Amino acid sequence: MAEATPSIAPFTSSAPFDDPNADTILRSSDGVEFRVYRLILSSASPFFKDMFSLPQGRSEDPSIPNIPFSESGRILDRFLRIWYPGATAAGFDNLEQLAEVIQLALLRIYVEKHCVSAFAIACRYVWKDLAKLAAKQSLNLDLPSIFNTSAANPYLRHITGDQFQALLIYHHACGQAACVAGRLLPWTDAEYAWNKCTAASCEACPHYSDIPGRGRVVPRAWIFTYLDEAGAALEQRPGANVENPALLVAAQTKAMSCPNGAYGTPSCRNHGLQDLSKFVTDTYVPAINEAINGVTLQI
Protein backbone atom coordinates (compact mmCIF):
# COMPACT_ATOMS: atom_id res chain seq x y z
CA MET A 1 0.00 0.00 0.00
CA ALA A 2 1.48 3.33 -1.06
CA GLU A 3 2.14 5.89 1.62
CA ALA A 4 0.02 9.02 1.56
CA THR A 5 1.88 12.16 0.56
CA PRO A 6 1.91 14.54 3.51
CA SER A 7 -0.10 17.68 2.79
CA ILE A 8 1.50 21.08 3.12
CA ALA A 9 -0.32 23.32 5.55
CA PRO A 10 -1.52 26.59 3.98
CA PHE A 11 0.64 29.56 4.85
CA THR A 12 -0.79 32.11 7.28
CA SER A 13 0.62 35.40 8.44
CA SER A 14 2.12 35.70 11.90
CA ALA A 15 3.41 38.44 14.19
CA PRO A 16 3.91 41.27 13.57
CA PHE A 17 1.65 40.98 10.49
CA ASP A 18 -1.48 39.81 12.29
CA ASP A 19 -2.17 42.93 14.31
CA PRO A 20 -5.96 43.56 14.28
CA ASN A 21 -5.36 47.27 14.86
CA ALA A 22 -3.21 47.74 11.75
CA ASP A 23 -4.43 50.30 9.23
CA THR A 24 -3.51 48.57 5.95
CA ILE A 25 -3.75 45.06 4.49
CA LEU A 26 -1.27 43.65 1.98
CA ARG A 27 -2.86 40.64 0.24
CA SER A 28 -0.71 37.97 -1.45
CA SER A 29 -1.65 36.12 -4.64
CA ASP A 30 -2.85 33.14 -2.58
CA GLY A 31 -5.03 35.26 -0.33
CA VAL A 32 -2.79 35.65 2.73
CA GLU A 33 -3.40 38.95 4.51
CA PHE A 34 -0.57 40.91 6.10
CA ARG A 35 -1.83 43.61 8.46
CA VAL A 36 0.67 46.45 8.64
CA TYR A 37 0.96 50.07 9.68
CA ARG A 38 1.56 52.27 6.67
CA LEU A 39 3.54 54.83 8.71
CA ILE A 40 6.01 52.13 9.75
CA LEU A 41 6.47 50.77 6.22
CA SER A 42 6.64 54.27 4.71
CA SER A 43 9.42 55.18 7.14
CA ALA A 44 11.33 51.99 6.44
CA SER A 45 11.07 51.92 2.65
CA PRO A 46 10.75 54.64 -0.05
CA PHE A 47 8.92 52.10 -2.22
CA PHE A 48 6.11 51.74 0.27
CA LYS A 49 6.02 55.49 0.85
CA ASP A 50 5.40 56.02 -2.85
CA MET A 51 2.93 53.14 -3.04
CA PHE A 52 0.80 54.44 -0.19
CA SER A 53 0.46 57.79 -1.95
CA LEU A 54 -1.59 56.08 -4.69
CA PRO A 55 -5.34 55.28 -4.49
CA GLN A 56 -5.90 51.90 -2.81
CA GLY A 57 -8.55 49.21 -3.05
CA ARG A 58 -10.74 48.14 -0.16
CA SER A 59 -10.79 44.97 1.91
CA GLU A 60 -13.83 43.27 3.43
CA ASP A 61 -13.51 45.92 6.11
CA PRO A 62 -14.24 49.11 4.12
CA SER A 63 -12.24 51.20 6.55
CA ILE A 64 -8.95 49.40 5.75
CA PRO A 65 -7.17 49.80 2.38
CA ASN A 66 -6.30 46.50 0.67
CA ILE A 67 -3.25 46.32 -1.59
CA PRO A 68 -2.85 43.21 -3.79
CA PHE A 69 0.54 41.66 -4.56
CA SER A 70 1.32 39.11 -7.27
CA GLU A 71 3.69 37.18 -4.98
CA SER A 72 2.75 34.22 -2.77
CA GLY A 73 2.29 34.59 0.97
CA ARG A 74 5.56 32.81 1.79
CA ILE A 75 7.61 35.07 -0.47
CA LEU A 76 5.82 38.25 0.61
CA ASP A 77 6.36 37.32 4.26
CA ARG A 78 10.13 36.97 3.77
CA PHE A 79 10.25 40.18 1.79
CA LEU A 80 8.38 42.19 4.43
CA ARG A 81 10.57 40.88 7.23
CA ILE A 82 13.56 42.53 5.58
CA TRP A 83 11.95 45.97 5.90
CA TYR A 84 9.46 45.88 8.75
CA PRO A 85 10.95 47.13 12.04
CA GLY A 86 10.69 44.58 14.83
CA ALA A 87 10.00 41.64 12.51
CA THR A 88 12.07 38.50 13.00
CA ALA A 89 14.01 37.64 9.85
CA ALA A 90 12.80 34.44 8.17
CA GLY A 91 15.08 31.78 6.76
CA PHE A 92 14.92 30.36 3.26
CA ASP A 93 14.09 26.76 2.47
CA ASN A 94 16.15 26.82 -0.72
CA LEU A 95 18.05 29.10 -3.09
CA GLU A 96 15.00 29.46 -5.32
CA GLN A 97 13.12 31.22 -2.52
CA LEU A 98 16.10 33.50 -1.93
CA ALA A 99 16.21 34.35 -5.63
CA GLU A 100 12.47 35.16 -5.62
CA VAL A 101 12.86 37.56 -2.70
CA ILE A 102 15.86 39.25 -4.36
CA GLN A 103 13.88 39.67 -7.57
CA LEU A 104 10.95 41.06 -5.62
CA ALA A 105 13.22 43.56 -3.86
CA LEU A 106 14.65 44.69 -7.18
CA LEU A 107 11.23 44.82 -8.77
CA ARG A 108 9.44 46.70 -6.03
CA ILE A 109 12.19 49.02 -4.86
CA TYR A 110 15.03 49.55 -7.30
CA VAL A 111 13.76 49.05 -10.83
CA GLU A 112 11.92 52.38 -11.04
CA LYS A 113 14.85 54.61 -10.09
CA HIS A 114 17.75 52.31 -11.00
CA CYS A 115 16.48 50.56 -14.11
CA VAL A 116 19.86 50.12 -15.80
CA SER A 117 21.39 48.52 -12.69
CA ALA A 118 18.34 46.28 -12.27
CA PHE A 119 18.61 45.29 -15.94
CA ALA A 120 22.28 44.37 -15.52
CA ILE A 121 21.63 42.29 -12.39
CA ALA A 122 18.69 40.55 -14.08
CA CYS A 123 20.82 39.68 -17.12
CA ARG A 124 23.63 38.39 -14.94
CA TYR A 125 21.34 35.95 -13.13
CA VAL A 126 19.16 35.21 -16.17
CA TRP A 127 15.99 36.71 -14.64
CA LYS A 128 14.37 37.45 -17.98
CA ASP A 129 11.06 38.76 -16.67
CA LEU A 130 12.83 41.26 -14.44
CA ALA A 131 15.17 42.24 -17.31
CA LYS A 132 12.15 42.97 -19.50
CA LEU A 133 10.54 45.05 -16.79
CA ALA A 134 13.75 47.03 -16.21
CA ALA A 135 14.14 47.59 -19.96
CA LYS A 136 10.58 48.89 -20.15
CA GLN A 137 11.26 51.19 -17.21
CA SER A 138 14.26 52.59 -19.11
CA LEU A 139 11.82 54.00 -21.67
CA ASN A 140 11.20 56.85 -19.23
CA LEU A 141 14.76 58.00 -19.97
CA ASP A 142 16.27 59.22 -23.21
CA LEU A 143 19.35 57.48 -24.61
CA PRO A 144 21.83 60.18 -23.46
CA SER A 145 20.53 59.74 -19.90
CA ILE A 146 21.01 55.97 -20.13
CA PHE A 147 24.59 56.49 -21.28
CA ASN A 148 25.27 59.04 -18.54
CA THR A 149 23.92 56.79 -15.79
CA SER A 150 25.86 53.83 -17.19
CA ALA A 151 29.29 55.42 -17.37
CA ALA A 152 30.28 54.56 -13.79
CA ASN A 153 27.76 51.78 -13.17
CA PRO A 154 29.61 48.87 -11.49
CA TYR A 155 26.88 46.37 -12.34
CA LEU A 156 27.43 46.66 -16.09
CA ARG A 157 30.81 44.95 -15.82
CA HIS A 158 28.96 41.70 -15.15
CA ILE A 159 27.04 41.63 -18.45
CA THR A 160 28.16 41.36 -22.04
CA GLY A 161 28.31 44.14 -24.57
CA ASP A 162 25.63 42.31 -26.56
CA GLN A 163 23.24 42.44 -23.60
CA PHE A 164 23.74 46.18 -23.11
CA GLN A 165 23.39 46.71 -26.84
CA ALA A 166 20.11 44.78 -26.71
CA LEU A 167 18.82 47.32 -24.19
CA LEU A 168 19.76 50.23 -26.46
CA ILE A 169 18.25 48.56 -29.54
CA TYR A 170 15.05 47.87 -27.62
CA HIS A 171 14.85 51.50 -26.48
CA HIS A 172 15.37 52.78 -30.03
CA ALA A 173 12.81 50.36 -31.50
CA CYS A 174 10.22 51.36 -28.90
CA GLY A 175 10.87 55.02 -29.71
CA GLN A 176 10.28 54.41 -33.40
CA ALA A 177 7.12 52.38 -32.78
CA ALA A 178 5.66 54.92 -30.35
CA CYS A 179 6.61 57.85 -32.58
CA VAL A 180 4.49 56.71 -35.52
CA ALA A 181 1.60 55.34 -33.44
CA GLY A 182 -0.32 58.61 -33.64
CA ARG A 183 -0.16 58.85 -37.41
CA LEU A 184 -1.54 55.32 -37.73
CA LEU A 185 -4.61 56.03 -35.61
CA PRO A 186 -8.18 56.60 -36.78
CA TRP A 187 -7.88 60.30 -35.94
CA THR A 188 -10.08 60.75 -39.02
CA ASP A 189 -13.14 59.78 -36.97
CA ALA A 190 -15.88 61.95 -38.41
CA GLU A 191 -17.05 63.02 -34.96
CA TYR A 192 -13.85 64.81 -33.95
CA ALA A 193 -13.99 68.59 -33.98
CA TRP A 194 -10.89 68.95 -36.16
CA ASN A 195 -12.79 67.16 -38.93
CA LYS A 196 -16.19 68.80 -38.39
CA CYS A 197 -14.98 72.39 -38.06
CA THR A 198 -16.00 74.62 -40.97
CA ALA A 199 -14.68 77.96 -39.72
CA ALA A 200 -12.92 79.58 -42.69
CA SER A 201 -10.24 81.25 -40.57
CA CYS A 202 -9.32 78.05 -38.63
CA GLU A 203 -6.03 76.88 -40.16
CA ALA A 204 -6.53 73.74 -42.22
CA CYS A 205 -4.12 70.92 -42.93
CA PRO A 206 -2.67 71.04 -46.46
CA HIS A 207 -3.74 67.42 -46.98
CA TYR A 208 -7.22 65.96 -47.15
CA SER A 209 -8.56 62.73 -45.71
CA ASP A 210 -11.24 60.38 -46.97
CA ILE A 211 -13.63 59.65 -44.11
CA PRO A 212 -16.26 56.94 -44.45
CA GLY A 213 -19.70 58.51 -44.52
CA ARG A 214 -18.37 62.05 -45.02
CA GLY A 215 -16.21 61.77 -48.11
CA ARG A 216 -13.20 64.04 -48.58
CA VAL A 217 -12.46 66.20 -45.54
CA VAL A 218 -9.67 68.69 -44.79
CA PRO A 219 -8.76 68.39 -41.08
CA ARG A 220 -7.66 71.37 -39.02
CA ALA A 221 -3.89 71.68 -38.72
CA TRP A 222 -3.67 71.89 -34.92
CA ILE A 223 -4.29 68.17 -34.39
CA PHE A 224 -1.12 67.47 -36.37
CA THR A 225 0.76 70.05 -34.34
CA TYR A 226 0.01 67.94 -31.30
CA LEU A 227 0.74 64.58 -32.97
CA ASP A 228 4.06 65.83 -34.36
CA GLU A 229 5.24 67.22 -31.01
CA ALA A 230 4.08 64.15 -29.09
CA GLY A 231 5.73 61.88 -31.66
CA ALA A 232 9.03 63.75 -31.36
CA ALA A 233 8.92 63.41 -27.57
CA LEU A 234 8.14 59.68 -27.82
CA GLU A 235 10.98 59.09 -30.28
CA GLN A 236 13.47 60.41 -27.72
CA ARG A 237 11.74 59.04 -24.63
CA PRO A 238 9.19 56.32 -25.44
CA GLY A 239 7.74 56.50 -21.95
CA ALA A 240 6.92 60.20 -22.29
CA ASN A 241 3.54 61.29 -20.98
CA VAL A 242 1.57 62.47 -24.02
CA GLU A 243 -1.03 63.95 -21.66
CA ASN A 244 1.57 66.40 -20.35
CA PRO A 245 0.21 69.95 -20.57
CA ALA A 246 3.52 71.06 -22.09
CA LEU A 247 2.73 68.92 -25.15
CA LEU A 248 -0.92 69.90 -25.31
CA VAL A 249 -0.59 73.66 -24.94
CA ALA A 250 0.34 74.55 -28.54
CA ALA A 251 -2.53 72.55 -30.01
CA GLN A 252 -4.94 73.84 -27.38
CA THR A 253 -3.95 77.44 -28.14
CA LYS A 254 -4.59 76.95 -31.84
CA ALA A 255 -7.90 75.23 -31.20
CA MET A 256 -9.05 78.08 -28.95
CA SER A 257 -8.12 80.63 -31.62
CA CYS A 258 -10.79 79.16 -33.89
CA PRO A 259 -13.83 81.51 -34.09
CA ASN A 260 -17.13 80.24 -32.74
CA GLY A 261 -19.20 78.54 -35.40
CA ALA A 262 -22.06 80.63 -36.68
CA TYR A 263 -25.56 79.42 -35.91
CA GLY A 264 -24.31 76.34 -34.07
CA THR A 265 -21.83 75.30 -36.76
CA PRO A 266 -19.25 72.92 -35.23
CA SER A 267 -15.93 74.58 -34.43
CA CYS A 268 -12.64 73.65 -32.77
CA ARG A 269 -13.16 76.37 -30.19
CA ASN A 270 -16.43 74.81 -29.03
CA HIS A 271 -15.45 71.14 -28.94
CA GLY A 272 -11.76 70.80 -29.81
CA LEU A 273 -10.31 70.52 -26.30
CA GLN A 274 -12.90 68.00 -25.19
CA ASP A 275 -12.35 65.88 -28.29
CA LEU A 276 -8.56 66.07 -27.94
CA SER A 277 -8.73 64.88 -24.34
CA LYS A 278 -10.99 61.97 -25.33
CA PHE A 279 -8.78 61.08 -28.29
CA VAL A 280 -5.60 61.05 -26.21
CA THR A 281 -7.07 59.05 -23.32
CA ASP A 282 -9.22 56.58 -25.21
CA THR A 283 -7.22 56.07 -28.38
CA TYR A 284 -3.72 57.53 -28.43
CA VAL A 285 -2.32 56.26 -25.11
CA PRO A 286 -3.59 52.67 -25.66
CA ALA A 287 -2.11 52.73 -29.17
CA ILE A 288 1.28 53.83 -27.83
CA ASN A 289 1.24 51.07 -25.21
CA GLU A 290 0.27 48.50 -27.82
CA ALA A 291 3.07 49.64 -30.13
CA ILE A 292 5.65 49.39 -27.34
CA ASN A 293 4.36 46.01 -26.19
CA GLY A 294 4.88 44.75 -29.72
CA VAL A 295 8.66 45.34 -29.47
CA THR A 296 10.72 42.38 -28.27
CA LEU A 297 13.77 42.64 -26.04
CA GLN A 298 16.34 40.31 -27.61
CA ILE A 299 18.35 38.87 -24.71
Automatic annotation (TrEMBL):
<feature type="domain" description="BTB">
    <location>
        <begin position="22"/>
        <end position="86"/>
    </location>
</feature>
<dbReference type="InterPro" id="IPR000210">
    <property type="entry name" value="BTB/POZ_dom"/>
</dbReference>
<protein>
    <recommendedName>
        <fullName>BTB domain-containing protein</fullName>
    </recommendedName>
</protein>
<dbReference type="Pfam" id="PF00651">
    <property type="entry name" value="BTB"/>
</dbReference>
<dbReference type="InterPro" id="IPR011333">
    <property type="entry name" value="SKP1/BTB/POZ_sf"/>
</dbReference>
